[in-house]
Every structure is written in C-alpha cells, then in structure tokens.
Amino acid sequence: MKxxxxxxxxxxxxxxxxxxxxxxxxxxxxxxxxxxxxxxxTGSMKPNLLVGDFLFxxxxxxxxxxxSCPFSLCPINGRIFFSxxxxxxxVVFRHPRSGKDYIKRVIGLPGDKIKIExxxxxxxxxxxxxxxxxxxxxxxxxxxSMKSIPQCANEPVPMxxxxxxxxxxxxxxxxxxxxxxxxxxxxxxxNTQDFIIGERQYFFLGDNRDNxxxxxxxKQFGGVGLVPAEYLIGxxxxxxxxxxxxxxxxxxxxxKDRFFKVIS
Length: 264
Description:
The protein is mainly beta. It has helices at about 1-10, 10-35, and strands at about 35-40, 55-60, 65, 80, 90-95, 100-110, 115, 120-125, 125, 130-140, 165-170, 180-185, 195, 200-205, 225-230, 230-240, 260. The protein has two domains: about 1-35; about 40-260, Umud Fragment, subunit A, CATH 2.10.109.10.
C-alpha cells in the first residue's frame, strides 16, 4: 500500500495536477496582488478610453494603500508611496463617498492651484494650451452593459445615426504630456473656483469634459472632489481589448484596432 501511494504522488497525473494547482494559485496571486481588471462602463474618458475597453490596473504603480493591497500588513489609513502619481497619468481610484471605482486623469498635484475658465485649465496661473482637432464622431446608440447613449454636440441626432459629433481638442500639460479631450459646447464645469490641492490630495478630470463628474464637482453633488492619496488604486497604461457589445464575452463585437492599445 505504501508503494502504491508513493507511485501516485510521483506519477504523471499527480505532477499535472500539482502543476495546475500551482499555476492557478500564481494566477490568482498576480490578479489579486499586482493587477486589477477594469472594464470601462461609461464615456467620461472618451476619446482615449471607450465604453467597453478592458484593461488591467497596476495596483503597485504608486505603492501600498488599503485599496491596492490585500494584506493585513498594508496601511489602514494613508499610503506608502513607491512613486508619486504624475500629472497626466490615467488612474483608477475609489470614490471617497460611494466606494465605487472611477477612472480619470490626474491634473492637479499636491500644492497646485487649479482653475478652469471658459473650459480652459489653468495650473498655478499657467494656461494649459488647447489646439483644435477634427470632430470626434460616433454612432448614437446604446453602449455597454449600462446601455448609455452618447450625447452629441449637434443635437437633435436620431438613434442609429453615425453623425453624432463632439468637438475635439488636444491639451498639452507643462510636463509635455498631450492627450485629446472632448467638449459638447455646454458649460458644464467650464468655470470654477480656485482649487488649492492639499497635501496628499489629487485633482482629477475626465477627458470627455461635458460628460464627467470629476474633481470640479463636490462629492455631495455626485462629483469626486479632491481625492486623498489612500483612495488611489493604480495606474492604467494599456487597453487589453475592447468590446462594442453589452458584454466583454461577445467576442464578435471586439474592436480590432484596440488590442494592446497604449493609453495616452
């Protein structure tokens, strides 16, 4: 009997099972500890992130916090930084009030003064230059699992029309980072007060400026306000794949041009 047990523990089936268990454990560890999957549910980051984009968030890109580390040794409050977020980074963070995960772009760092006048961002009194780009066009139809319908600058636009447009510009930060932004010609958050960014706080904006509840808006009005460092989860840097359908499993709706697309 002992010999049979020994043979079972050294046979090819045992080795296969052992390998599979280790592989699954490692995959779970990597998914839980290092990366968090994120599926873009809304259009607040268009045109750079589309509804249905699927990406992984590097949970240790900035260090440890209670929202990016599963271990009991991680800080209950505050954050242990490896490196500070940079202006222009696209970051996933936990909403300080609702507890939901959001994705936005870092615009204001600790110590900055941020103000928006007529849709133009000013950082420490310096105007962030915008240059016009061709209009962003998409089909007006239900998008993603939330069945959200895109807004159009040229309303009224009938459902199913491919001529739903948004005004598009390129914004350039002082550090040289550039990215596209969208505008509907509305005045949603186009003029704000001065925001003084406190220590270990960050100011976020969505790239789809007239369709984003971000740091321009207080938490009590559905915005995110100034986000404390401990609520940051990690940096988003690449889209793995993207689906136009209601589910990421509808592979026939995957967008061919967005596999492994770098997020800018």
